[in-house]
Amino acid sequence: MDARLQALLDKQAITDLVYAYCSASDRHDHARLRALYHPDATDDHGGFFKGLASEFIDRLPEIQAPMEILHHNITNLNIALDGDYAEGEIYVLAFHRIRTDAEPMDLLIGGRYFDRYEKRDGIWKFSAKAVVADWATVNSPSTVQLDHPLVQGSHIGKPGPDDPSYEFFRLFKWGQR
């Protein structure tokens, strides 16, 4: 196969991996998230965690418990390939609505993922991930208004399998892996 075509296929597989990471994170789908990492992969989420990605995922139920809304948006993807190894500088906007003892608060972070990927047995997965915050905005109390009349009747996203996507999509087979 032409090397340029293989590079396109590899970059698309990595792009799909990054998008799957965001979707699994937002839905608190830890089984799906775990499947995106190689068993020896590392994760550096700064003050939250630094170590094996599998151990980070084990701690996610506790970390995500107060997060009523998670919404990751990928903007720029810079991916460099070298055979079955690749690196990515991935720009992300991540919105969090966090339950507190008082009122919920909002956290919007603009940052980047510094990723390393490896293709093993023909499948690209994360071998390392580091999260970098470039800026953050905090609103306390939250400014989210899902009960506003303009939103009334809309499907509302939720963490976990109660999210409307799990019932709507047939091809993704989320929660069935």
UniProtKB/TrEMBL annotation:
Domain SnoaL-like span(s) in chain numbering: 6-127
Classification via Pfam families: SnoaL_4
CDD domains for the chain: NTF2_like
InterPro entries, sorted: NTF2-like_dom_sf, SnoaL-like
Name recorded for this polypeptide: Nuclear transport factor 2 family protein
